[in-house]
TrEMBL record:
Residues 12-35 are annotated as: Disordered. This is L,D-transpeptidase catalytic domain. The lineage of its organism: Bacteria, Pseudomonadati, Bacteroidota, Sphingobacteriia, Sphingobacteriales. It comes from the Bacteria.
């Protein structure tokens, strides 16, 4: 059987969910980040269609504009009212002024400006999300009955705003995902550490120290990314077959 030596080459901050489930301030439960070995299946702007379809029902960076008192967003090359995007925003149909006020208030909470921005900067999953799955047949691609976990690697709108305002970032506890700093996720992706088909490993909360060296029986060079929720760290490992 093949054996692979993993050597740590980089380390970044990361924050997962709580070790034990608690209720979040948004009335959604915060759960632990699920330990295991996974494979990256997508790197994309996330759009929610379920419980987060309000602020996250519009992709990060979507063009916006104010037409009179109506907030408009660009979807599929056409401008539509925000109140037409989905059923959550549809609650504001006929109450466009109230919706405009809510958007201005949300932007003010992040950027201290009471305006409607020209881009959507409210998506809870930030400007890019890394989605991964359990590779049950170990072929490095999502097929059969495999599907994405609810845990993603992503930034937050608050941290995106802090970068824009040149403010320090202290990562917040997640609902189960892995929170990272905007610059760090861009570095992880840009340097090829996180890539479709690469491995993501989440360690148990009991591991409080980041290992410098590991051995795995099933790996795919050149890199793996490991998250240590107990240490609040993400480590990049270089892989060499022994």
């Amino acid at each position: 059987m093949a054996s692979y030596q993993l050597t740590k080459i980089q380390e970044y901050d990361g924050h997962g969910g709580p070790a034990s489930e608690v209720m979040g301030g948004d009335n959604h439960p915060k759960t632990s980040t699920t330990p295991g070995r996974y494979v990256v299946g997508a790197i994309e702007k996330h759009v929610s269609y379920g419980k987060y379809k309000g602020w996250s029902g519009v992709a990060w960076g979507t063009e916006m504009r104010l037409l009179g008192d109506v907030v408009m967003v660009k979807k599929g090359g056409s401008w539509i009212r925000l109140s037409e995007v989905n059923s959550e925003w549809g609650k504001f149909k006929g109450k466009e002024k109230d919706l405009t006020a809510q958007i201005k208030s949300a932007y003010h909470s992040f950027y201290n400006k009471l305006v409607v921005p020209d881009r959507w900067v409210f998506n809870d999953f930030g400007h890019v999300s890394v989605k991964y799955f359990v590779d049950r047949n170990k072929n490095w691609k999502m097929d059969g009955k495999e599907g994405f976990l609810g845990d993603f690697i992503h930034t937050t709108p608050g941290d995106e705003a802090r970068v824009a305002l040149k403010q320090p970032i202290v990562l917040s506890e997640s609902h189960g995902c892995i929170h990272v700093k905007p610059f760090d996720i861009d570095t992880l992706i840009g340097n090829g550490y996180i890539k479709k088909g690469h491995t993501i490993e989440v360690h148990p909360y009991s591991e409080m120290l980041v290992a410098n060296n590991l051995v795995r029986n099933h790996a795919r060079p050149p890199y793996e990314v490991h998250f240590y929720p107990g240490a609040f760290k993400i480590a990049v490992y270089r892989i060499v077959q022994k």
